[in-house]
Amino acid sequence: MNATGPEAGHAAEPGLPRAHGAAVLRAQIRTQPEDFFVEELAGFEPTGSGEHLLLTIEKRGMNTAFAAQRIAQWAGVGDVAIGYAGLKDRHAVTRQRFSVHLPKRVSPDPMTLQVDGPGEALRVIDAQWHAKKLPRGALAGNRFTLVLREVQGEPAAIEARLQAIAARGVPNYFGEQRFGRGGDNVAQALAMFAGRRVRREQRTLLLSAARSELFNRVLAARVKSQCWDKPLEGEVWMLDGSRSVFGPEPWSDELAQRLRAFDIHPTGPLWGKGTLRSTGECEALEVAALDGSDVAALRAGLEAEGLKQERRALRLRPEGLQWRWLGEGTLEVGFSLPAGTYATVVLAELGDVASLGRDG
After folding, report:
1. Which of 83, 108, 107, 84 is nearest to 94 (CA)?
2. What is the pTM of this model?
3. Catalytic residues
4. Cross-strand partners of 319
5. Whether the bond into 248 is cis, omega within 30 of 0
6. Which of 114, 153, 295, 300 has the highest CB neighbour number within 10 Å of its CB?
7. Using CA atoms, how far apart are residues 306 and 203, in angstroms rounded to an integer?
């Protein structure tokens, strides 16, 4: 996190410029799992009947895949019978839903599903029946409570930055988690496009990394031009809280009001086959940001895989952003984010936050 952006201070993620200026703090996070608490926000209510036992689990020191295996062992079912909406890191305390398919089976007592050890823990918060397996992405978002320790910086400047983030939001970069351990997923994607054979599940991850790299390049260019949250001629808009897009259309007072109210957001491309939906000034910026031989190989690879042009919001607003000092040099920050966005990009707008533990 030490790279710098030309006009925007230090990088938000490696190589990416900040929107709110130079860093106002240095800090550490995840010195212990309790410093990173994440709770899924449910996207639906259980049906109350069906063949799937919907468990709300609180876990510590284990990632989602490992917890799913423990649940499958407890239920006496195969891994395929377990569903979950999102992936959560091991170095955290998390609450998330899992579904267990138990057709014509007597459910074991949920209270017997428990792990309690110095390195890992798991317990059931709630259990209800549901009609369907829990699919990926079936959550409204996540609520984070994060503790930053060994904070270096002026408290007044830090609080002013938090107020600015609450009022304006942050660039909706894909976080470094998307790019794998050591950030080598993009290089692996290029190798895959050049003919290297990979497993099916790895292919999905590498395609996502390639798309994310291209999106981040466009967003970084707009941050440098200070137009990541402002309209360009030929803009494509996304409705807040959905994937619905519209435009381009002429700029108007109505659009200006909706942009100020966070009802709509400017967008950038998720690359694939077809032409860019943006036009004019917006299209020109996107084309310029995605120039170069390495970028051309990523674009061509995504197109050859059959992915289609889509859009993603450039702006992310943390909901309910709150903070408090727990003591000198210890800051607690809480906020909610929609699914598919990253808490790390919010922290990065504060400064250089070193994570002492994170899954790749």
Report:
1. 84
2. 0.89
3. 89
4. 336
5. yes
6. 153
7. 13
